[in-house]
Write a structure and sequence with these properties.
The complex is a heterodimer of chains A (300) and B (365). Chain A is of the alpha/beta class and 300 residues long. In chain A, 37% of the residues lie in helices and 18% in strands. Chain A folds into 2 domains: 152 residues, Type I PLP-dependent aspartate aminotransferase-like (Major domain) (Aspartate Aminotransferase, domain 2, 3-Layer(aba) Sandwich), CATH 3.40.640; 132 residues, Aspartate Aminotransferase, domain 1 (Alpha-Beta Complex), CATH 3.90.1150. In chain A, helix 9 packs across helix 11. Chain A is globular. Chain B folds into 2 domains: 240 residues, Type I PLP-dependent aspartate aminotransferase-like (Major domain) (Aspartate Aminotransferase, domain 2, 3-Layer(aba) Sandwich), CATH 3.40.640.10; 120 residues, Aspartate Aminotransferase, domain 1 (Alpha-Beta Complex), CATH 3.90.1150.10.
């Protein structure tokens, strides 16, 4: 974000990670940057939001938590055409599943704490820049503002990345099974998982990527079930974060997305019924059994 | 609790679970929650981590502040602290500020509309004259880097208080063992903890300590939102390094005094800057606000040739013009009196006689 200065405007995915939203609205806005939030799964909406001072698009390739799919090839072509930078937060997919720079993006950013490190033991962030001149500018700010990663955490991340593909292969396989199982459960409403045929981004991801990732969002049929599931799951921990070998369940409305205004959350569908599941590499039968037992009980 | 005891026991309670004297390293990025309504003390390691908290409390305790915050580097601490300001705000900064801070202020934050005026802050009247209606803070280093100038912190803080603005002090050179700016009325203390606080050249880290809990709260918000935090393994190394802060500083300082005495006797040495020298213009003020002169000194050599050859043998020497202040344009350096013949010495824990023997060999050539 330090690449930009006072008066610059950015277009941003509307259902983005709450921490990015907080950084943009509560810190960078005071320095004169402005942000428009749009549904980036629709390139026309992005085009309509462009202003003369728009300098960049900040898009989540697969959104958090609603798993909307952005067409990176189309969006980066649009950015190129309008002289804007295309910055992709590719945390949910990793370069294993989607190569954004190959599809025309300028910069990819990652919370490496998630799939890249993959073991819930490191907090780190990574940036990959396509153009060496732009990379120099990013490096200038990395050095200037000094928010670097220590060598031990760097080493843990390198160690974690060795198993990225085998972890993700298993995580995706598990996620596909869990998404199907959830779709058939009587206490579950909507299931958001791009690996399901009915998902609006399914075909696009099939064409462009190497898989559908391992994040699932789903709605339960009544709010009491949220508490029940969070408290009763044994193997799936109730904790923020995602992408690690351990399965985690999160309540976005009060955890990861608490910094976004309630009206916005409601409009987007991040409501008091929505849960987010980060599927780990445990045996899928055990994960399904854990969810099944958590659904049973007083609210049955 | 006296300082030496606080270093060993402050902010570092014995682990109640197993009695471990060394603080456990909590590597987890996230923490499982037991209730939807009442989250545990920790939820995500960027927001808070038990190992980092122990270190932050230890540093806050040593500086006598309400809130301590650990960052990935000294510059991350400085950049995060500067995020409390907004475009149009103005800062009065001591002119020979660390080159990295100068770069941050003159590029990144300037682009964002934060203004800075650099003044000779050894003159409180010069600080007062630079204050404008939109001035939000004084940003000071004493002793300064690399010219070891002394700023009267109590006078600056009193002036700032009168104007309703913050006083921010980079206390890297002194550490809380020798100088505690918050006790002199300053508001925020910053550190490159990479230097004396950690003291073993094996960790990059930074700290911000706020006197007032409200300022601390704002900084904590930024620390979490901006996320330039220090990892738990590095936090643990710094906790370990802090234990020996007092014994290290005393030894560093004794070595520095010995070397200064020797340097003063050398024909090839044109000038020595050290606040322990009675002829230093800031001697009185420094003695009033700090309990020792520290272990950083600088000196000017008679020629640039000597300066170059000395750098070949001593790793603890640095050339401000080429290293710490390389980010500052030559004209700015010149204006601040940072000559090409200036050498800065951070005295280590080696026997000073060995260091002197090394330098003697070079100067005798």
């Amino acid at each position: 974000m330090f690449l930009f200065s006072q008066g610059d405007h950015l277009i941003v995915t509307e259902d983005l990670y709450g921490g990015s939203y907080r950084l943009f609205e509560k810190l960078f806005q005071q320095f004169g940057l402005t942000f428009s939030y749009v549904d980036t799964s629709d390139a026309d909406l992005v085009r309509q939001a462009i202003r003369p001072n728009t300098r960049a698009l900040f898009v989540e390739s697969l959104t958090n938590p609603l798993l909307k799919v952005a067409d990176i090839e189309k969006l980066s072509a649009l950015c190129k055409d309008r002289g804007m930078l295309c910055i992709v937060d590719n945390t949910f997919l990793t370069p294993y599943l989607l190569r954004c720079l190959d599809q025309g993006a300028d910069i990819t950013v990652y919370s490496g704490s998630k799939y890249l490190a993959g073991h819930n033991d490191t907090v780190c962030g990574l940036v990959a820049v396509k153009d060496p001149v732009l990379a120099e500018q990013v490096y200038f700010h990395q050095n200037g503002a000094g928010a670097v990663l220590g060598p031990q955490d760097s080493w843990l991340t390198i160690r974690g990345m060795k198993t990225l593909t085998i972890r993700l292969d298993r995580q995706q396989e598990n996620a596909q099974a869990l998404a199907r199982w959830l779709s058939g459960h009587p206490k579950v409403g909507k299931v958001y998982y791009p690996g399901l045929e009915g998902h609006p981004g399914h075909e696009l991801m099939k064409r462009r990527g190497r898989g559908f990732g391992a994040m699932i969002a789903f709605e339960v049929i009544k709010p009491q079930l949220v508490d029940q599931l969070l408290m009763k799951t044994q193997l799936i921990s109730f904790a923020e974060s995602l992408g690690g070998v351990e399965s985690l369940i999160t309540f976005p409305q009060v955890q990861t997305h608490a910094d976004i205004e309630p009206e916005t959350l409601e409009r987007l569908g991040i409501n008091n019924l929505l849960l987010r599941l980060s599927v780990g590499i445990e045996d899928k039968d055990d994960l399904i059994a854990d969810l099944a037992q958590a659904f049973e009980g007083e609210n049955a | 609790m006296k300082f030496a005891t606080e270093l060993i026991h402050g902010g570092n309670p014995i682990d109640p679970e197993h009695g471990s004297l060394s603080h456990p390293i909590y590597l987890s990025s996230t923490f499982a929650q037991h209730s939807m309504d009442h989250f545990g003390r920790f939820d995500y390691s960027r927001s808070g981590n038990p190992t980092r908290e122990a270190l932050e409390e230890a540093v806050a305790g040593l500086e006598k502040g309400a809130t301590g915050l650990a960052f990935a580097s000294g510059m991350a601490a400085i950049a995060s602290t500067l995020l409390i300001f907004a475009p149009g705000d103005h800062l009065v900064v001591c002119e020979d500020v660390y080159g990295g801070t100068f770069r941050l202020l003159s590029t990144l934050f300037k682009g964002w509309g934060l203004q800075a005026t650099f003044v000779d802050a050894t003159d409180t009247a010069a600080i007062a004259a630079a204050i404008r209606p939109e001035t939000k803070a004084l940003y000071l280093e004493t002793p300064s880097n690399p010219l070891i100038k002394i700023i009267d912190l109590a006078a600056a803080a009193a002036l700032a208080k009168e104007k309703g603005i913050l006083t921010i002090v980079d206390n890297t050179f002194m550490t809380p063992y020798l100088q505690r700016p918050l006790e002199l009325g300053c508001d925020i203390v910053l550190h490159s903890g990479t230097k004396f606080l950690n003291g073993h050249s094996d960790v990059l880290c930074g700290f911000a300590v706020a006197r007032d809990p409200e300022v601390g709260k704002r900084l904590r918000f930024i620390q979490n939102a901006f996320g330039a935090v220090l990892g738990p393994q590095d936090c643990w190394l710094v906790l370990r390094g802090l234990k020996t802060l007092k014994v290290r500083m005393e030894e560093h300082q004794a070595g520095a005094r010995r070397i200064v005495t020797w340097l003063k006797e050398q024909r090839e040495v044109a000038k020595v800057y050290y606040p322990g020298l009675p002829e230093h213009p800031g001697y009185e003020i420094h003695n009033a606000q700090a309990s020792g002169p520290g272990a950083v000194l600088s000196f000017e050599l008679a020629s640039y040739e000597l300066t170059k050859s000395l750098g070949g043998v001593e790793s603890i020497l640095s050339y401000p013009a080429k290293m710490s202040h390389a980010a500052m344009p030559p004209a700015e350096r010149e204006a601040r009196g940072i000559k090409d013949t200036l050498v800065r010495l951070s005295v280590g824990l080696e026997d000073p006689e060995d260091l002197i023997a090394d330098m003697e060999r070079v100067l005798a050539r």
